[in-house]
Write a structure and sequence with these properties.
The chain is α/β, with parallel strands linked by helices and 263 residues long. It has two domains: 7-223, Rossmann fold; 230-263, no CATH class. Helices cover 30% and strands 23% of the residues.
Length: 263
């Protein structure tokens, strides 16, 4: 199941998200998500590990039909207050999604893969329920930010205790292992000090969407392609009712009912 955040942890995470400086970073992450998903309005999307609902709000504003899933009741309670009845919420884990194959057009997985017990199974399930594109957002293990987090958790507990961090290359290898040689694109978010920061106090950093393997946050877009194709089949069966040919996904030629079988 991975880590399940308590209600108090969920509230603390919500307060962290609402800080002005963090809001700017989160909004840029949402812009990167929508850029790599390139969704069509009216289509369906699943937010895996929806947390307090921030990504769901961005997806709703893009005109999508949104469903969210999270293992934490506390996170879902806060998400329900955030999105109301505009999205469907489900309690569950990424490794065992309660949806049919190809149920959603898109899927978004932001800040979730780090906390699941079995990333391979989680990716397999996400690809199973999605028929078009998947966005995966994660903290880059090769960034200075993650290096600081990993050093800090040696001495104190934080919300990343037990988290597993990925690099771009590790995640691409995982995607290809689970989905085959599907098209994969990636971009990163980099932050730079604003040279006018002393004057423009409200915006002291500049965000840039680029392609840096050492940036703090990386977004990956996966374009899924069918791994199987349908073709006409010949079925062996007996009948006393019909004479002729049945066409469709199964193409069968029928013979008279003198005890013979169709071929």
């Amino acid at each position: 199941m991975g880590r399940v955040f308590s209600y108090n942890e969920a509230k603390a995470y919500e307060r962290w998200q609402n800080r002005p400086g963090n809001q700017a970073d989160i909004q840029m992450e949402h812009r990167l998500m929508l850029r790599l998903l390139a969704p069509l309005r009216g289509e369906s999307v699943l937010d895996v590990g929806c947390g307090t609902g921030g990504s769901m709000k961005a997806l709703l504003e893009a005109g999508l039909r949104v469903s969210g899933l999270d293992p934490s009741p506390g996170m879902l309670d806060i998400a329900a207050q955030s999105v109301g009845h505009h999205a469907e919420l489900h309690q569950g884990v990424a490794e065992d999604l309660p949806f049919d194959d190809n149920h959603f057009t898109y899927a978004a997985v932001a800040g979730t893969l780090e906390f699941v017990d079995d990333p391979e199974k989680a990716m397999e399930e996400i690809f199973r329920v999605t028929k078009d594109r998947v966005f995966i957002g994660f903290l880059n293990r090769h960034s200075t930010l993650v290096s600081g987090i990993r050093a800090q958790r040696v001495f104190i507990q934080n919300r990343y205790s037990g988290a597993r961090f990925f690099s771009v290359w590790e995640l691409k290898r995982l995607i290809h292992d689970m989905a085959g040689e599907v098209p994969v694109t990636w971009r990163s978010l980099s932050r730079f000090p604003n040279p006018l920061g002393l004057i423009l106090r409200r915006r002291r950093t500049i965000h840039l969407i680029c392609k840096s393997p050492v940036a703090s946050y990386v977004g990956v877009g996966v374009s899924l392609v069918p791994r199987f194709r349908t073709r006409p089949l010949r079925l062996k069966c007996r009948t006393k009712l019909f004479e002729g040919t049945l066409t469709g996904l199964a193409s069968v030629q029928w013979r008279p009912h003198h005890g013979s079988t169709a071929v």
